[in-house]
Amino acid sequence: MRHAVYNLNYHVVWIPKYRRRVLTGPIAVRLREILVAIADQYGLEILAFEGMPDHIYLFVSAPPRYSPAQLVNLFKGISSRRLRQEFPALRRRPQRQ
Fold first, then answer.
1. Which pairing describes strands 56-62 and 8-14: parallel, antiparallel, or unpaired?
2. So where are the chain's domains?
3. Separation of alpha carbons 16 and 87, rounded Å
4. 3-state SS class at 90
5. If you count DSSP H runs as helices and E runs as strands, how many of each does the chain have, helices first?
6. What are phi and psi for residue 90, nearest 5 degrees?
7. Helix, strand or coil for residue 8?
8. What angle do CA 28, 32, 34 make, to 5 degrees?
9. How many CB atoms sit inside 10 A of residue 89's CB?
10. Angle formed by the axes of helices 25-42 and 68-86, nearest 10°
11. Alpha carbon separation from 35 to 5, 24, 69, 84, 93 (Å, rounded)
12. What is the percent of the chain where pLDDT is above 90?
């Protein structure tokens, strides 16, 4: 039997490329759904989420088997790929706003 207790919480902030304001409307809603699905799939818990048009705040609780770099890679990599598949306009560089 293992006897271990952990409480690892990470505050992650990231921005879209060139800090473009693309995280609005249906893209923001879908981003939140994708992040929740990723958390469920990997046994993570999103404690807080704040999506702004040009950046994302994510406060997540994770088991010790994931390093902070792995968590960022999971959330950013998977969400970026899925959003680009579902919203083709994101594939090209958005115009300055």
1. antiparallel
2. 14-90
3. 14
4. helix
5. 2, 3
6. -75, -15
7. strand
8. 115
9. 9
10. 140
11. 25, 15, 16, 14, 23
12. 68
- The sign one gets for the Cα dihedral 36, 41, 42, 45 is positive
Q: Looking at domain 14-90, what is its CATH homologous superfamily?
A: Transposase IS200-like (3.30.70.1290)
Which tokens sit at 86? Answer: 């579902």
Residue type for position 78: I
Contact 92/76 with Cβ under 8 angstroms?
Answer: no
* Contacts of 59 by beta carbon, 8 Å cutoff, 6+ apart: 9, 10, 11, 12, 46, 47, 48, 49
Flag whether pLDDT at 78 surpasses 70. Answer: yes
pTM for this prediction: 0.87
At residue 49, φ and ψ (nearest 5 deg) are: -140, 130
Coil, helix or strand for 67? coil
- Which tokens is 57 given? 């705040």
